[in-house]
Amino acid sequence: MTTAFTPLAERMRPQTLATYVGQAHLLAKGKPLRRALEEGYLHSMLFWGPPGTGKTTLARLIAHYWQAEFLTLSAVLSGVKEIRAAVEVAQDNREQLGKATVLFVDEVHRFNKAQQDAFLPHIESGVLIFIGATTENPSFELNNALLSRVRTYVLRSLSTDDIRAILQQALHDQKQGLGARDLSLSTTALEQLVLMADGDARRALGWLEMAADLAEETEQGLVISDATVQEVASGSLRRFDKGGDLFYEQISALHKAVRGTDPDAALYWFCRMLDGGCDPLYIARRIVRMASEDIGNADPRGLQLALNAWDAYERLGSPEGELMLAQAVVYLACAPKSNATYSAFKQAMQDAKQSGSLEVPMHLRNAPTKLMKSMDYGKGYRYAHDEANAYASGENYFPEALQGQRYYQPVERGLELKIRQKLASLRGKI
Question: Is the entire prediction scored with pTM above 0.85?
Fold first, then answer.
């Protein structure tokens, strides 16, 4: 007889608040949800947060602390029939056993209006304690009638420290975790898992379990290599090579000639590629890339001309349309150069990947509903058009952790010279 497989993430669910990681803004001493649990204040609630932040686990812990039976429904798989069955169980618990019932509804936003309304009388009568979980904004996805009967708690993405602690716990736990396997994991591999999890504990534990299954036997015991973690977390990279080395050497030469402001060499390599049988549409796409990467806002007309040349070629075909591509190549080669946007984009993308899901500051959040306004969404936002030069001096538009970051550094060439001067003036540097 085979034993049913239980995923590591399920085995590692905390059984007490002491072992629950994250959501300190709700569960630290003196915080609202912690007080409700300790004081036995039973109430229906809604958990709103990204995947893997502990919504289901927290609902289970609440049922445990309130000594209530825990029932669960998935809005993806359940309907009114299943809701009625759960209500009957809750009524029996209340009338015959004097026991409370927690009904946890995962993905509650997937229920339609009629299904959501089915909970209302039972929440009001106290037959059951409703706990819903959603990854979507409840202001848009849930009925106002249901929202008015529950207290909404916002769960945040777990920090890197939280994810690291969860992984370490799973690695060393002898009973529920991987501790009995005596696995070794380098600091680099651990941090890679932490970073790629992006605040999702379930994802992190899933990857750790897969990596553990692929651990290599060495003289030092079972080792999870950095390469294994990379393979598990990001998948194997598939090679894409449509042409030979010479093909890519020529397009590289064309690109570098344009970047180096040599229209003659650029035109030569363009013609070499055409003569070698290269698809002109491939070159057209690369020309558009050059216009953005190497000319940018120093001459924004370059991008428009590149797009026009691409369009003209598609209309005329070869050989007539090739002249338009040649025109774009020559123009871009002669244009003032700037890679400021390209560099800024790469830096911003790196920060976006490495910093995880940083929260949008409250003053930048839109607040079209009463619930969102009551949670201080949009509070303190300064409308730029109401200020001098339509510029809210000193306002922060970044997540708090990145405040003051600078990516875009306009060069002193072409139109970017004027952009540079404008930004400097607004920022009070001249």
Answer: no
